[in-house]
Amino acid sequence: MFPHSDACERNKEPILLVLRPAFSACKHVLEIGSGTGQHAVHFAIAMPWLVWQPTEMAESLPGLRKRIFSEGPSNLRAPVELDVTRLPWDVRRVDGVFTANTLHIMHWPQVEALFAGLPAVVKPQTVLAIYGPFRYAGNYTSASNESFDTMLHARDPGSGIRDFEEVDALARRAGFALAADHPMPANNQILVWKLAAG
Fold first, then answer.
1. Nearest one of 190, 30, 42 to 120, comparing CA atoms
2. What are the tens digits of pLDDT across the range 160-174?
3. Which of 47, 10, 56 is nearest to 29 (CA)?
């Protein structure tokens, strides 16, 4: 009935184990690129103190809406359209931001736009958590990630696994400081940054 991702089913619980303490002091989380909505539903149920705001590009909203309206708890908001390149974003200010498996699908100018859009919608001490594969100093963390990157480039030359150092530089430019780098199953990471107060 709804769009489904096997990867989301596999990784939602390991991700939750990191997000629960990371977002423990947050009240409103913006999810950028909610996809099938499986993460949004799971995390909103598991973290009832949060108001969770899912977003997606216009073409992906219908399926996302169906799942959220059918399965979502009361603290899961109706999804809204968000194209990171269209500034300013039409979302309320938040103290938590999450995105999963988006940076390697986006083209680099879109990744830059994502970070450029954050300062206008975040509160002091906002927590930013990003899940996905990364390279470090230009090196892959596994042979499977290198193969995955080759596949991404063949399908869309603008996509690809991002270098941690370049992404961290964008985060720092937006006012965020790296707080944690969590190794995850299937050669992924969760990078957590925190916005400076003031």
1. 30
2. 999 999 999 999 999
3. 47
Which pair of structure tokens corresponds to residue 149? 């990157």
Distance from C-alpha of 65 to C-alpha of 126, rounded to nearest angstrom:
26
- Contact between 191 and 101 under an 8 Å Cβ cutoff? The reply is no
CB of 70 within 8 A of CB of 2? yes
* Helix, strand, coil percentages for the chain (3-state, nearest 5): 40, 25, 35
Rounded CA separation 48/156 (Å):
38
- Sorting pLDDT into bands at 50, 70 and 90, what band is 2? confident
In DSSP terms, 55 is beta-bridged to: 80
Residue 195 to residues 78, 150, 174, Cα–Cα distance (Å): 26, 34, 8
Dig out the tokens for 120 from the structure.
Answer: 């206008």
What strands, in cross-sheet order, belong to the sheet with 94-100?
80-81, 51-56, 28-31, 94-100, 122-132, 188-195, 176-184
Residues 3, 91, 195, CA angle at the centre, nearest 5°?
105
What global pTM score does this model have?
0.96
